């Protein structure tokens, strides 16, 4: 796989080529990644997969017209044809008064922070196979597990580089490792499946195969012979494994492109007290070894830690160049870039700060409620905030977990859910979005 310097050189050459062919401005982003994964099922090797990919994307501007194109052909003649085609496409594109590159004064400058995203530990295929086998074996050893969908282990690395005609040229690399197990418990109509997994930038930061496998087995066995709950309004408690989705909806609604399209339930509510004053939601793109850590965004703007929610209010809108110009905002370092197409918007590492009580204390006064461990369906309206999802989990009776439930629907409105959120104190920081156990009162539950 190419290194950062090679990726930067390719981008620099492509931007210079586009300028020589008539582009007024241009940027290029190169990405390369490689990974190896091993899957073991019932103790036997089932799959070994090795993937490698490299691509480069070019965005050009001719006046207020722009075009984007990407390729995996790095031959000189191929790159020249790419640049020619991009410039010609731009000349025939409609004008966009908001499109353009980040101004030089807005670009990241100085030394790149040491985010410790790269682990040079060499994990041999045999070691991946043994880790996958041990993870599945630990899951299958849990009493009540009857079958397995497999244990997996993977290791990979990636490089990203960005060059703009405004003088920005930076790149960085990172690694990723993961372990997982997915097993089955019960028989016939009582059969249930569940999983456990962990990903990390450094191999040493993973849980052990035994810890992950045991957790997968215990989660699965606990779901056997589910019942239901009575329909009505009641407290719903979200397990940390799935509670991060609530932050994902918030972040999506805070995107400036969605605000510009008037397609966000937060439109016009930036000054409202949407959360309890004790709630604090933080984004930290510079978190050391973070799964989405990045020193700069997809347009070369510096990434900056900030509170997304504080004192009950949201920070504002997360912008890229086009949406910032359209709405008259500053740049926030949230441009997201793939190989082709115009930049979108995304956040990096985010978390809901922990509360003051244990999960047990959080549930202690719930006479009848629902503890959710799984969600399915896409019933979230990002314009109105209406929320309706299928759910599985456990019934709460008199403050205690009373038994598994399935075929449940939970519903509410995200604005009301945010205002009713109460976090527990069990926050763990190992995913890109991390939350503790979350209680939301007053949701509508459809069961029996």
Please tell me about this protein's structure.
It is a single chain. With 448 residues, this protein is an alpha+beta fold. The chain has 3 domains: 4-35 and 43-106, PmbA/TldD fold; 125-158 and 172-221, PmbA/TldD superfamily (PmbA/TldD fold); 226-448, no CATH class. It contains 9 helices and 19 strands. It has helices at residues 4-20, 76-91, 125-140, 209-222, 240-253, 256-260, 321-327, 359-363, 414-419, and strands at residues 25-41, 44-62, 65-71, 145-164, 169-185, 192-200, 232-238, 281-283, 306-310, 313-314, 335-336, 344-345, 350-352, 368-380, 386-397, 400-413, 421-423, 433-434, 438-446. Strand 15 (386-397) and strand 16 (400-413) form a beta hairpin. Helix 1 (4-20) packs across helix 2 and helix 3 runs parallel beside helix 4 (209-222). The chain is globular, with a radius of gyration of 24 Å. GO terms for molecular function: metallopeptidase activity. InterPro entries: Metalloprtase-TldD/E_C, Metalloprtase-TldD/E_cen_dom, Metalloprtase-TldD/E_N, PmbA, TldD/PmbA_N, TldD/PmbA_sf. One of its GO terms (biological process) is proteolysis.
